[in-house]
Structure formats: structure tokens, C-alpha cells
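Form P-L/3: holo structure prediction, ligand phosphoric acid mono(formamide)ester.
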Amino acid sequence: MKRDLLSAFDMKDDLEQIVDLAINMKRRRYDYEPVLAKHILGMIFEKQSTRTRVSLETAIEQLGGHAIYLNPNDMQVGRGETVADTARVLSGFVDFISYRAYSSENVAELARNASVPVINALDNKEHPVQIVADFMTMKEKFGKLKGLKLAYVGDGNNMANSLIAGSSILGIDVSVASPQGHKPDPAIIQRSKETAKSKDSKVEILDSPQEAVENADAVYTDVWVSMGEEADKKEKEKQFAGYQVNDSLMSKAKNTAIFMHCLPAHRGLEVSASVIDGPKSIVFRQAENRLHTAKAILLTLHKSMPPRSSL
Ligand code: CP
Ligand code: NVA
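OUTPUT (holo model):
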């Protein structure tokens, strides 16, 4: 059965294994070089990307395969061909499809109709590939994941949703502080709370950034204005004024706490320059780990596929 990665919950049984595989692939890069020889990744991007595009493309190339960047404006889907037909056609050519989309329904529609694994490369609801790199970075730093506390301060967006879900799977306590009206997705919170129960960990949704970062091992933030929300910029910047991660907020977390951000970042808005460019910041390690986790994800999804000839 082919396996897709659309949500953090699609890794509910093996998220930490994927993290560990990525750590091993980082250490032993050359051992894995031919594993995806001649395999093709089709990458559809409806929105801009630096890290996701370059890490996926580099990952498949380093594993012996090749990537094709697909801009929907240059494809027939941009003139009305359905997502379902696009999925069926691409499945005849490529071995994986990644899709960065405005709508999670379109990603699900593509996955339903593709016979090859589909990777959600960010949609309005989740950013599952990013969190694998984030948890890998935490494991490299702390040597473990279970029992840590992650505080997320800011917009209850795609990043927040995937981090909450992923933390609950890994037994990480997660506290999220966002303004009213910008809380994470209620269904994801609910499912994460249920998952956390079996791991003896906590999911807290708060208003106060100070309360959320108390005793945190890692403090995470993301942009206040996600791609596609540019029209709300002025309004959101007002609503999020008290949610900046700065030195004063970091001083309320553990002394050993690290600062995390998926990037791109806006210094002076969601994070002060002193924090993101300071000694606690681990953001460029997170970015680098996108490559190693992209490889681990491709390899893990590939293992679920029957040999091409028997499809
Ligand atoms: N963090 C992340 O996904 O970055 P890009 O938008 O550059 O891919
Ligand atoms: N929340 C951000 C993440 C970018 C990687 C966005 O969707 O634009």
C-alpha cells in the first residue's frame, strides 16, 4: 500500500523512527546514495519556497534520483484540468509527488487519486515535513524527545497545528500561546490531547506567552502573516503585538532553552533580532536538517511501495 504524508498524524506510529533515520542519514550520507536511483519526485508549488523546494530537490538528487519543479501556472491544472486527473497522470511518470498548496482539500484530493506517495509540502492546515526537522534538531540538542517541553508563541497556524500533533505523538509537553481568534485548529487540538494522554504528556492552549514559556526547553515561533494572508497584515500585527519572542520572554523559559523558527523570519515582529541572532537560536540547524529529514521521509514512503512492475 502506498503511504502519503499529509498530516503529522500520518507519522503517529513512527515519527521518532523517521527522526532517528534522518540523524543516521546525516551521519552516514554516502551509505544511502543509491537508494532512490532513477526515482523521480514531481514537486508542485502553488506558493513560494526556499527551504522545502531546495531540501526536497537536493534530497532526491543525493539519493540518486531527480526532481521536477512544477509551477501550476505552467500546467494544465492552471487552466482547469482537475487535481484528480493531474494526480492520475503524474502517477504514470513520477515516483513521488510533493504538493505545496493553498487548500488541504486539494492535497487530500491529489493523494486520493495518486498511486504514488504524496507529501504535503505545506498547506493551510499543516506543515508536516518541517516538524520532522524540528524534532530532529531537538533530539540532536537534548539527546531525547519524550519529557521535553515545547512552547509555541504566536499564530495558531499550520506550523502550530503540526507541532502540537507531533509533540503529542512523541510525548513532548506542548504549550501554545496565541491571541483569541488565532488559536490552532480545534480538531487537531482535540486529537492531540487524546494522543498525549497515552504518552503521559500535556497539550495546553493558553493566551499568555509568559505562562506558555515557563519551564520550556524550546521556544518556537512562526510568522504572524502566513502566505496568502497578506491582506490581514496590518490587523494581525496589531493583534500579535504582545506575542514577540524577545530576550525578556526567553528569560522566563529554562536557562538552557533554545529558540526555534521554521523560517522565513521577520526580525522585530514575531522575534527580536537579539533572540534569532543570539546564542540560544538554533534556526539554521533546523533549516539544514530539512535536507536530512527530506531524505528520511522519501526513503520511509518509498519502503511502503510495491515494486514498480507489480503496480
Ligand atoms: N520553512 C519552510 O518551509 O520554508 P520555505 O517556505 O522556504 O520552504
Ligand atoms: N506559516 C508559514 C510557514 C512558512 C514556512 C506560512 O504558511 O506562510
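COMMENT: Strands lie at 40-45, 66-70, 96-100, 118-120, 149-153, 173-177, 203-206, 218-221, 258-261.
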